[in-house]
Structure formats: structure tokens, C-alpha cells
Amino acid sequence: MSFDTIVVVDWSGASSPSPVKPSKDAIWIGVARRGTAEVETSYHRTRHDATETLAMLFEAERAAGRRVLAGFDFPFGYPRGFAEAVSGEADPLTLWRALSDRIEDAPDNANNRFAVAAGLNDVFPGIGPFWGCPDNLGDPRLPSKGTLRHGHGMTERRACDRTKGAQPVWKLFTTGSVGSQALLGIARLQALRHRFGPDLAVRPFERHDAPITLVELFPSLIAPTVEALAEENEIKDRAQVRILAAALAQLAPRQLDAMTREGDAEEGWILGLGHETLLESAARAAFATPDPLEDMPKTDLMPPRLRDDCFAMPQGVSWVPVDDALAKLHDALHPVTGLEILPTARTAGRVLAADVTAKRSNPPMPNSAVDGYGFAHGATGTGVQRLPLVAGRAAAGQPYPHAVPPGHAIRILTGAILPEGVDTVVLEEDTNTDATTVVFDGPAKPRANTRKDGEDVAAGAPALPKGRRLRAPDLALASALGIGELPVHRPLRVGVVSTGDEIVAAPDRPAAPHQIWDANRPMLLALASGWHCEAVDLGHVPDDPEQIAARLDEGARKADVILTSGGASAGDEDHVSALLRQRGTLSSWRIALKPGRPLALAMWEGTPVFGLPGNPVAALVCALIFARPALSLMAGAGWTVPQGFTVPAAFSKRKKPGRREYLRARLTEDGHAEVFASEGSGRISGLSWADGLVELPDEAVEVTPGTPVRYIPYASFGLI
Ligand code: AMP
Ligand code: MG
Predict the structure, then answer these.
(1) Is the distance from the beta carbon of residue 502 to the nearest atom of ligand 1 less than 6 Å?
(2) In degrees to the nearest 10, what's the CA dihedral of 373, 378, 382, 383?
(3) Is the dihedral of CA 160, 164, 165, 168 positive or negative?
(4) In angstroms, rounded to a whole number, what is the distance separating the alpha carbons of residues 491 and 512?
(5) Superfamily (CATH H level) for 645-717
(6) Is the N or the C terminus of the chain less surrounded, counting Cβ atoms within 10 Å?
(7) Minimum-distance ligand to the CA of 500?
(8) Ligand 2: distance of its center to the CA of 500 in Å?
(9) Domain boundaries of the chain, sorted by first residue
């Protein structure tokens, strides 16, 4: 589910209206629209005013069909056991009802929270757990200091309150009195629950998708970033709601939705706890416009999710030619990974997420391409040239600080900036010198042996394109152009699971005669890592629908795409395809390809699943031909077509029309393609014997020794 409008509320437990002039420690509301950095902020003197404003906003957004995520900076729950002790049930929302029945909170902020807390303390033995009150309260049930409490039996903090700076929920008075904010806040939110009914869900307690979702926030989670991004003299509370709302609006919808569901169903949870780095980079991305992110549309930060029916094949299609299947895959997929900014030196193998332009020209100044002597061309002519040498020299990193007079020369070394008065260099080997004069044959070519500034790349010119999978030379270029950080895609997470009752997970485990060791999983995991993806090992599961389903659920949580092997056909024992058909959105593609029976493509919980054949030979070919370009596209690096070479065959083969074939092959010493002796699809040794594949076209072919064939080395498929 995605949220269109993000609301962040900085709450207050004050007992009287806040000052007329917008000030700190009052209620501030920030409203952001997804994918923009525009945040509207408003200041509210009372809880009554703030809640009315929120209710109107919720009404308007609901009417417009925009989903709202509203976050509040007070605890939604209490340490385990409290709800049951107060309301008789462990359900936190039953507690909300019980608390709001007790709280009175007038339009001018006058309220009875201390009396309510004192009453709640009565439910517990000893003294506490609530504490903190003004000196004049004088209720013996509510101690003025935390240390005066004893024997109440409640833990001090919720699991999520162990984060830095979080205050215990029991504290009602002075600094960070979240206890008061929670009692008064929960009562207000309970009123909103009443008003909006099933259209409002409180996470993580309620799981249903509703037009309005409420969550607990803690702006201090990203305190340093808020401080860094705050405007000059901006009131802290305003900066917090503004920046946090903008950050949340930048997150990928699926990621944000998943975050709202995290945490403890009784105690509640702080949204984004454990994801601080992500929130901080989202906040910076929302406001920072330094290059190289400058020209990048902000929406790139939140790739849209894939449609559930994206793999659907037109009705009535039986055998799909390989190229049609590839075209269909190409259209169905798009990049799904978020981005991060990394130091250039750490980006090898990553995918560039934005076009990058040169910060400075390379070279920055005209310089010498050789060791030799520099002079002004205009003062030289034909025949023997004798130029007196100036004292000193120009070397790389040691510029000559004076002008060289016309008719004079200077000793100059490779990489040295051309001193003023020098535009041409003669190569040392073409000269003679006695240390005071240099002699050479004219005429010299104007600007010979020099490099113009910007002749490689001019400042501001395109340097590296978005989508480039960064290689060592790209790092050299970016560094030379002064680009110290690059926006890159997060690595695509590829989950790999093997299925089959006969499969034993790893060769260090014993296998009965009817069992075989898992060959596909190590192969597919290594492929994924070699493709610079994050390989996520999802293990092996027997042919049991429930177990396969549970593993796919795990995969959908941990990975951006899942590769399964085995059980992908349409037979009795083909449990993966049966399950995907039943529970996912399956398109079984019968591809006119050998080796490789049907390829199952499906969406499981929004995550694409490639159901590869169990046969290792077919699994590899299908992975190389279909999964590789698809994963590349999803990773942001665009569709890839493996580079093949036409070489003479060293074999004979007659092939019928109607399907494409890939043969395990390698090059002979004289550059001919030889193929593995057996085409049997169970022959794993042939996969290892080969260095690549020979691709035979869909049409009929008759190959005899010497016939040109297309050979695609494993390296062209990115195999390591
Ligand atoms: P399936 O696609 O499940 O019908 O499997 C086809 C063939 O591949 C069968 O002979 C399986 O035993 C074999 N197979 C399936 N998965 C694996 C695996 N992970 N490693 C090795 N062989 C496998
Ligand atoms: Mg099987």
C-alpha cells in the first residue's frame, strides 16, 4: 500500500494554550505529499485546535482518495502487562478506550492527567509506575520523583524505548514528559478512531489497509540530520516535523508500508527504528540539491512497484519464441532498487543512479605531454633553432611561476602546466643542450606535445551516464573529474531457493541412494553475486506447498526478486508452479528453447519469482538467458544483451526449426567452437567443461565443421 500524504505531528502535553506567537514545545504539524520536498507546516496552540485540523485534513484526503500516513511523537503503547492490568485485556486499543474514558481535556488544554495517572497507579501494588507532578499536587499515589517508586511490577521501558534519547512512558513532568503526552494524545487519537471507524488503522496494532494510518514517531531518531537541514533560527519542533515528513515522503511506498507493520503488537513501535540511515539519506535527498543529484527527479528515489499481472501472456499463446519472451520481460519490469550516495572509491560494481557531469575539466590546465623544452611557437622558424634556457624548470605539481620571454625556452617535464609564454614543446630526444641553450631542428608544429585544458573532458560535460554499471575505469574518470561521491542504486537482493523431495541441501550432509545434493543453489547464488547483486540464500524446501509458501513469504521480505529451481513445470510433482498458480499470479511461459522447459514467472507478495527448471543445465541456461537481463533491468542497469562472436564450428549438427538451442561449448586452440559430447540435460559436467554457449537460431540449421556459429563466452553473461 502506498501513502499519498504524510503528516507528522509534534505533540504537546501542556496544561494551557501555547503562546500566540509560534514557539517551541507546542504542537506543530507538517504535511508532505509523496515524492515532493514541499512540506506545509502549521502551529497549534491547543490540542483541540490541532485535532480539529487533523480531522478536517483526514476528511479532505479521504474524500479525494488520497491515503494518509499520520505520525505522532508520543508512545502508542505501554510496557507489556500494563494494558491487561488496566483494561483486563492485553490489547493496546482496548487500553486506548479505557484511558480515553478517564481523560478530560478541555479546549484550553486544562486537563486531569495527573489525577488519571494517580488513579492508574492504584491498580498496581507498591508506588508507581507513573511519577512526576507539580509540587502543589499533593496526591500521595503519584510520587514527585521516579526514585520514590517501588513494587509496582512494571518494566521501565518498552523494547523500542531503549533507543537513545527516548524517555520512559511513566514520566509525567519536566523534560521529555512523554507520559503526559501519551495519556492526552491517546485520548485524542481514540476520538479520531471513533470518528473515522474502519477507515482508520493504528499500526502496528491493526493490520488492515485503511485510508488513514496512524503511527508513532520519534523525530530524535534522525536528530543530527534535522539539525543539519534546519533553516537558520528555525524552531526545532517545526524543523522536526518538516524534515521528517519530507523524509518519509521520499521512501519507496512498499518500504514505508512494511515499516509501519514492524514492531511489537502490544507495546507499539517507533516507526523507522533500525532504519535511521535510510531515513537520514531520505531526508538529505529531499532537501539537498548538490550535484550529482541535481538533475535527478526525486521520484527516482521511490521506484514504483511491479504490477501483479506484469508477466501475463496473451491468451492462446502456446510456444513463445525466446525473443518474444525476452521482449515481454523487458516491458514488464523496471528498476526496483532505492539509491544511496557512496564515496566514489566504493562504487565498483554498483549502478549509477543519475547522470554525472564533470566538476572540473580534465586536464584542468594546458600541460606538457612529454619531457622536453617548451617555448612560444611564434618566435621560432625553420632550420636550426637555438633558444637560450631560462633558469629553473616546470614539472608536474611544480608550476613555473614566471613568464618565459619569446625566443627563450624552459626545461619542462610530462604533466607540467605550460608556463606563461609557452605553447609548444619539443621532445627531449629531438634536442641537444649545454644547459644554457637548447638546439633543435625547426620548424616545430604549433602546440606540439602539449595537452589542451579540457581536451579529455570539459567542465560541465557529461561524464558518466545513469544506469552505468561502474567499473574500475569509471572510478578513475569520476575521480579525475573531482567527483568524490556518486549516487548509486542499492544492490538488488536476489533470493535463491531450491525445491524437491529428492534434494539434500548441502554436500556436507549424508545423501541416501535416492537423494541428490543441491547443485542449483550454489550455482544460482554465485551467479547473483557475480552480477553484483546481494545473494540471499533461502535454502532448500521439500515439495510441500505450505513449506514452499512460507519460504516464498520469507523471500518476499528479504529479497527484491526470487529465483526458485525445480517443480516449475505443470506435472503432478510440480509444486512450485501449482502453488504460484494458486496463490501468486502465475504466468507459465512455454518457451521454445532447449534446454529449458517452461519458465514460471509470478508475483508473490509483490515480489517477482522466476521459477527455473530443476535440471541444472536448463536452470543455468534459463538464468543466463532470462534472469540475467531481467535482474539487470531491476537493478537499474538496463537490459543486457550478451556479446557473442561468430566463429567457425568444430562440430556437426542438424537442427529442426521451431526452437532456439544452446549448446555447452568452448573454443579450441585455433578458435573453433567445440561442443560437449553429450547434449543430455542432466550432464552437469558439461556445464563445467564449457567456457560458454553456442547459440543456434530458431530456424533450421545444418552445421558442419567450419560453419560460422554464434559463440557466447560465459564472461559475456557476467559469469565469474
Ligand atoms: P524438476 O524440475 O523438479 O522436475 O526437476 C528436474 C530434474 O532436476 C530432476 O531430475 C531433479 O532431481 C533435478 N533437480 C531439481 N533440483 C535440483 C537441484 N537443486 N540440484 C540438482 N538437481 C536438481
Ligand atoms: Mg522436483
Answers:
(1) yes
(2) -40
(3) positive
(4) 38
(5) MoeA, C-terminal, domain IV (2.40.340.10)
(6) C
(7) 2
(8) 4
(9) 5-74+201-286, 82-199, 339-362+456-489, 367-451, 493-634, 645-717
User: What is the band of 311 on the pLDDT scale with cuts at 50, 70, 90?
Assistant: confident
Residue nearest to atom 17 of ligand 1 (CA): 614
Chain-centroid distance of CA 200 in Å reads 29
**Which amino acid, residue 700?**
A
Q: To test ligand 1's pocket by mutation, which of 497, 499, 516 has the most ligand atoms within 8 angstroms of CB?
A: 516
Q: Would you state the cell numbers that stand for residue 536, as one nine-digit string?
A: 540471499
The answer to whether residue 301 scores a pLDDT higher than 60 is no
Residue 433 · residue 378 · CB < 8 Å? no
Q: What is the pTM of this model?
A: 0.61
Q: Is the CB of 568 under 6 A from ligand 1?
A: yes
- Mark out the alpha helices in 153-311 (DSSP H runs): 178-196, 223-229, 236-250, 253-260, 276-287
Closest alpha carbon to 301 in 309, 292, 293, 290: 293
Q: What is the pLDDT of residues 377-413, one digit of tens each?
A: 999 999 999 999 999 999 999 999 999 999 999 999 9
Q: In this prediction, what percent of the chain has a pLDDT beyond 70?
A: 96
Query: Can you give the three-state secondary structure of 154-173, one letter per residue?
Result: CCCCCHHHHCCCCCCCCECC
Q: The domain 339-362+456-489 belongs to what CATH superfamily?
A: Molybdopterin biosynthesis moea protein, domain 2 (3.90.105.10)
Which of the listed residues 504, 551, 565 should we mutate to test ligand 1's pocket, taking the one with most ligand atoms within 8 A of CB? 565
CATH topology of domain 367-451: Molybdopterin biosynthesis moeA protein; domain 3 (2.170.190)
Ligand number, closest to the Cα atom of 612: 1
503, 515, 527, 687, best to mutate for ligand 1 pocket (most atoms within 8 Å of CB) = 503
Q: What is the Cα gyration radius of the chain?
A: 35
- Backbone phi, psi, residue 453, to 5°: -65, 140
Q: Does the beta carbon of 503 lie inside 6 Å of ligand 1?
A: yes
Angle between helices 276-287 and 236-250 (to 10 degrees): 100
